[in-house]
Amino acid sequence: MNWRRDRTWIASRLQCRCTLPTQIPIPAEVWRRGDHDLNAGMEPILPLKPAAVLVALIDRPDELTVLFTQRTSHLAHHAGQVSFPGGHIEPDDSGPAETALRETEEEVGLDRRHVQLVGHLDNYVTRTGFVVAPIVGIVSPPFVLRPDPHEVAEVFEVPLSFLLDRQNHHRCSAEFEGVTRYFWAMPYGRHYIWGATAGMLVNMCDILDGE
Predict the structure, then answer these.
(1) CA 28 from centroid of its chain's CA atoms
(2) In angstroms, rounded to a whole number, what is the distance separating the alpha carbons of residues 6 and 111?
(3) 141: Cβ–Cβ under 8 A, 6 or more apart, which residues?
(4) How far is 181 from 38, CA to CA, in rounded Å?
(5) What is the CA 132 to chain-centroid distance, rounded?
(6) Which residues pair with 191 in a beta bridge?
(7) Gap between the Cα atoms of 29 and 33, Å rounded
(8) Alpha-carbon 169 to chain mean position
(9) What is the spatial distance between Cα 86 and Cα 181, in angstroms, rounded to a whole number?
(10) Domains of the chain by range and CATH?
């Protein structure tokens, strides 16, 4: 069995079918993973703003792929970056899972009836003050995407096997306001997957590896 593309194995490995989070947990819990993983002493902008994203695994015939968006250049947060579809948790949302599905429908037009939620990764805290719940779902084709041109410049897929190959996980650095910051990056073709998105993928790799 090729575990890197077997949806049943991945779902069982996440072990979260019945325990999807209904709310962002207390601060002591949310600090488990985040931009601070590679940057000792880094503190985010407080108060933390709750958000959720959908880590959509597309069940293609040859292997699972992961759905990404390239954000438009005029957005207030993370403009132009590669990300998972998602956004702020609204008061009317029943929890992060609802937020991830709703935001995915709004951003890329993926109908939730194609998505089977199978679990979640560790909540991820960003330096910019977000605590993000990454919700994992298996997406069954065929489906139609209708990206919102205001938020999404492009939608693309990357093979899950590429993202789970640790040889493709690059620990990079850059100067920001006079301070050296470290971050994960996973360049794929002309797309540069980095920062929080890459950090969540490293976390998924750790979970599937049993770390």
Answers:
(1) 21
(2) 23
(3) 58, 59, 60, 114
(4) 8
(5) 8
(6) 188
(7) 9
(8) 15
(9) 25
(10) 7-17+38-208 (3.90.79.10)
Do 69 and 154 meet the contact criterion of CB atoms below 8 Å apart? yes
- Residue that the structure tokens 């209708």 belong to: 146
In the 8-state DSSP scheme, what is residue 44?
A: P
Helix axes 195-208, 7-14, angle to 10 degrees: 90
* Nearest residue to 154 (alpha-carbon basis) of 189, 195, 196: 189
Residue pLDDT, tens place only, 124-150: 999 988 999 999 999 999 999 999 998
pLDDT digit string (tens) for 105-121?
999 999 999 999 988 89
DSSP for residue 48? P
> Do the Cβ atoms of 117 and 137 come closer than 8 Å?
yes
Contact 24, 123 (CB under 8 A): yes
In degrees and rounded to multiples of 5, residue 180 shows phi and psi of -80, 120
Cβ atoms of residues 31 and 125 within 8 Å = yes
Amino acid making up residue 12: S
**Own/partner long-range contacts of 178-181 (Cβ < 8 Å, ≥24 apart):** 181/35, 181/39, 181/42, 181/127
Residue 125, helix vs strand vs coil: strand
